[in-house]
């Protein structure tokens, strides 16, 4: 039997508990229930929250939940999904010392690490980003280009440099994560970087660094003299 929010004593309802005791005293289900707001004819908001959490092993897995997964849950439509995903993204940005990368001047690999470790450090798949810089090393834009095992057959140079020309970028920093936790470049990472550096030198849009990210550490090709 589904218990509706209206059937719960007023002082025990999630919003009232938040007001009376503070958000930190609410369970994960109660916090999700507030975001969902309303249920359906057959499911309460609390039941929907429980179904979302069934898709995760722990609360950290919500970082990787997407629109498609949420929409597969009957009763969670686009509007509810958008509220949940927006709240998750806000949480990520609040925990990020560098919530906005655009127009930031990249003066060290530490800056790249601090931004991307929150963004992709705990992802379960490899994510390959390019940061496009102007002549003063300020960020014009960063773009996610590929998801999956990073190698020369997946990462297409034409996509990387096409974007550079569209943005009138002078140089590029490549960034990707290692889900297994090792910061050291694989043979494929090295081959890909060498290939991109070679093409960049020919086209006049230099690859100035390739940074490998984990949640707690990084490897910079530039800092290790692997890019010249």
Q: How many structural domains can be distinguished in the coordinates?
A: 2
The helix content is: 25-40%
Fourth-level CATH superfamily of the largest domain = Cytidine Deaminase, domain 2
Shape assignment: elongated
Q: How does the SSE layout of this entry go?
A:
Blueprint: H1 14-21, H2 28-36, H3 45-53, H4 67-71, H5 78-94, H6 109-120, E1 127-133, E2 139-147, H7 157-167, E3 171-177, H8 187-203, E4 206-213, E5 218-220
Parallel strand pairs: 3-4
Antiparallel strand pairs: 1-2, 1-3, 4-5
Can you tag this structure with a few keywords?
elongated; 8 helices; 228 residues; 39% helix
Description:
The protein has 228 residues and is an alpha+beta fold. The chain has 2 domains: 90 residues; 112 residues, 3-Layer(aba) Sandwich (Cytidine Deaminase, domain 2), CATH 3.40.140.10. It has 8 helices and 5 strands. Strand 4 and strand 5 form a beta hairpin. Helix 2 crosses helix 3. The model has no long low-confidence stretch (mean pLDDT 87).
Summarize the structure.
With 228 residues, the protein is α+β, with helices and mostly antiparallel strands. The chain has helices spanning 14-21, 28-36, 45-53, 67-71, 78-94, 109-120, 157-167, 187-203, and strands at residues 127-133, 139-147, 171-177, 206-213, 218-220.
């Amino acid at each position: 039997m589904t218990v509706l929010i209206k059937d719960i004593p007023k002082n025990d309802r999630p919003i009232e508990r938040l007001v009376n005791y503070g958000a930190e005293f609410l369970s994960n289900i109660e916090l999700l229930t507030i975001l969902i707001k309303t249920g359906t004819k057959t499911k309460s908001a609390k039941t929907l929250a429980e179904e979302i959490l069934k898709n995760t092993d722990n609360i950290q897995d919500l970082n990787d939940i997407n629109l498609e997964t949420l929409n597969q849950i009957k009763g969670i439509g686009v509007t509810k999904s958008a509220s949940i995903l927006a709240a998750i993204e806000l949480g990520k940005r609040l925990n990020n010392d560098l919530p906005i990368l655009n127009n930031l001047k990249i003066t060290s690999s530490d800056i790249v690490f601090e931004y991307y470790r929150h963004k992709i450090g705990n992802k379960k798949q490899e994510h390959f980003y390019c940061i496009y810089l102007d002549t003063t090393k300020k960020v014009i834009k960063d773009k996610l280009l590929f998801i999956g095992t990073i190698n020369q057959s997946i990462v297409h140079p034409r996509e990387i440099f096409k974007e550079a020309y569209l943005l009138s970028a002078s140089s590029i920093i490549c960034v990707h994560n290692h889900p297994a936790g090792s910061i050291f470049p694989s043979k494929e990472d090295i081959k890909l970087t060498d290939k991109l550096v070679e093409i960049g030198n020919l086209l006049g849009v230099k690859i100035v660094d390739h940074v490998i990210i984990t949640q707690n550490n990084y490897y910079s090709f530039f800092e290790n003299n692997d890019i010249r």
